Amino acid sequence: MKPVDIDPTILEQAADWLVQIHSGETAAVNNAEIARWRAQSEQHEVAWQRAQQFIGIVHTLPPELGKTALQRPVSPARRRAIKKLAVLLVLSPAAWQAWRAQPWLEYTSDYHAATGRQRHVTLADGTALLLNTATSVDVIYDRHQRLVWLKQGELHITTAADSSGMDRPFRVQTRDGVARALGTRFSIRQLDHGSHLAVFESAVEVTPRSRPDRKAIIQAGQQTEFGEMAMQNARPVAHAQEAWTQGMLVVRDQPLAAVVDELRRYHVGVLRCHPDIADLRVSGTFPLMEVGRSLNLLQSTLPISVTTVSPYWVSLVPLA
Fold first, then answer.
1. 166 lies in some domain
2. What is residue 210's three-state secondary structure?
């Protein structure tokens, strides 16, 4: 289902109805009253249908939606739950699935960095990992290999020589294939439909998962994207692409929509860009770990306004 513009207040009302029904307060829910609410406008009906889809796909709600928190209609915990649920209702079903899986990845992964955070990890051989926002990895070191499984997110890796004396290869596994380091510094990111690799020192050998005959070596200063069946031709990598390791986003003449897409990775909740301002050109340097500050910088240099419904719900709109 493609996201549509719905008044945040209406989504909160739909979330409130949903919370009441899901919490076992059904006896207190008047179906006729819900029907009257749905009939008020098309947005009301779309919000209700989205709420129904949410329950059908997710099955379980955030911990804040527990019955204890819901027993008092005006409790702060309940209001927080409703606001968080309203944020989720604006997302697509695919995004709901991703949200549902996120907590499990945190608890079942060897290392995890939450949304809006980064984490440094030094492995047993001295290899340095930097986990970017919303990243989860498993690490497998045994007699035959040094393997990092990138389950989601983005990694920056500075490999160390194998100190075991067994000359074990260092590899990163994604859904799409394997990247084998040839003594190097590189980054790798799991995308929705492929994996992105950028090499900053030495070289990396890439092997698509289902086509090992199509392996290729990506040299320093090059980048590529690969899927399980194929790989794009290597192209130059910009020095600014490594800036995220310093917590910065460096932009040179990019559309505002692309900048917002990148900042959205570091924002907990919904971050939207109005289509009328999506093509505005942006240049500058923006702090990734302070999304609010970055949005204020954009607002100070572009004819846009940043509207905040809650810390979880932020929109960029044309300047009135």
1. yes
2. coil
134: helix, strand or coil: coil
Q: Residues 100, 103, 108, 110: what is their CA dihedral angle, to the nearest 10 degrees?
A: 130
| Residue 164 tokens, joined | 């075991």
Q: Into how many domains does the chain fold?
A: 3
**Residue 232 forms part of a structural domain:** yes
User: What residues make up the domain containing 69?
Assistant: 8-100
Per-residue pLDDT tens digits for 156-204 = 999 999 988 888 999 999 999 999 999 899 999 999 899 999 999 999 9
Residue 43 and residue 243: Cα distance in Å, rounded?
41
At which residue do the structure tokens 């949410």 appear? 54
- pLDDT the model gives residue 63: 40
Question: Rounded to whole angstroms, how far apart are CA atoms 8 and 10?
Answer: 5
Q: What DSSP state is assigned to residue 231? A: B
Q: What is the pLDDT of residues 59-111, one digit of tens each?
A: 444 443 333 333 444 455 455 556 656 665 665 555 555 555 555 556 568 89
DSSP state of 290: -
Half-sphere exposure of 151 (CA within 13 A, CB side): 20
Q: Are residues 207 and 254 in the same domain?
A: no
Distance between CA 248 and CA 11 in Å, rounded?
A: 33
For residue 317, the cross-strand partners are: 305
Q: Are 9 and 86 in contact (CB under 8 A)?
A: no
CA distance 233 to 31: 58
Structure tokens at 320: 């009135």
Q: CA–CA separation, 193 vs 170, rounded Å?
A: 24
pLDDT digits (tens, 9 = 90+) for 142-164: 888 899 999 999 999 999 999 88
Structural domain includes residue 45? yes
